[in-house]
Write a structure and sequence with these properties.
The protein is built from 4 helices and 8 strands. By secondary structure, the chain is of the alpha+beta class.
Length: 161
C-alpha cells in the first residue's frame, strides 16, 4: 500500500454491524497491531457508499451473512474528520456465520481469524468497552443484563502489585 492509500484508509469513515442471536453477539477474533482481540464485523466506507451499505457489505465479506439494518446505534466523530457508525443488523436464523475475508488485507496471513457468537460473559472487559461505544445498550435485552450486574466496581489491573 502506498503512502496515499495508507492516508486514505486511516482517515476514511467506518461502519460496523451489531448482530445478536439468542442473546449472543456476532464477534470476530482478529489479530491487529500486534495483539489479538474481539470486535464486531465492519470496516471502511467506500467512496459513494452509505454507512448502512458499508455495514451490510462488511458483514457479507467477513461473516458470509446477508443482513438488514434494524436501526442506527451510534455515530462517533473522530478528530481527523472521519466517523464511525454502528448499526443493529438482523440476519435470518437459517444463515450460518463463516469466517470470511477482508479484501484490503493480506491473504497470506489474514487478520480475521474466526467468527463466533459470544455472550457478554465471554468477552473481556476491554473488548466489551468498544461494544458500549458502538451502542450495544440500545439493543433489546442488553440494558436488562447490565441492570442485573449490581453496583460493584470492577477495574482490571487495579490491584496488581
Amino acid at each position: 500500500m502506498d503512502e496515499k492509500q495508507e492516508y486514505y484508509v486511516r482517515r476514511r469513515s467506518r461502519a460496523v454491524a451489531i448482530v445478536v442471536r439468542d442473546g449472543k453477539i456476532l464477534m470476530e477474533r482478529v489479530f491487529y497491531f500486534g495483539r489479538e482481540f474481539y470486535t464486531v464485523p465492519g470496516g471502511g466506507i467506500e467512496p459513494g457508499e452509505t454507512p448502512e451499505q458499508a455495514a451490510i457489505r462488511e458483514l457479507k465479506e467477513e461473516c458470509g451473512l446477508d443482513g438488514r439494518i434494524v436501526k442506527p446505534l451510534s455515530t462517533v466523530h473522530k478528530e481527523n474528520g472521519s466517523a464511525e457508525y454502528s448499526f443493529e443488523v438482523e440476519v435470518s436464523k437459517d444463515q450460518e456465520a463463516i469466517t470470511g475475508y477482508d479484501p484490503e488485507e493480506s491473504t497470506e496471513n489474514p487478520p480475521l481469524k474466526e467468527v463466533l457468537w459470544l455472550g457478554l460473559d465471554e468477552i473481556s472487559e476491554k473488548d466489551r468497552a468498544f461494544l458500549w461505544a458502538y451502542g450495544l445498550m440500545q439493543v433489546e435485552g442488553f440494558f436488562e443484563i447490565i441492570q442485573g450486574w449490581g453496583d460493584e466496581i470492577s477495574y482490571p489491573g487495579a490491584n496488581k502489585e
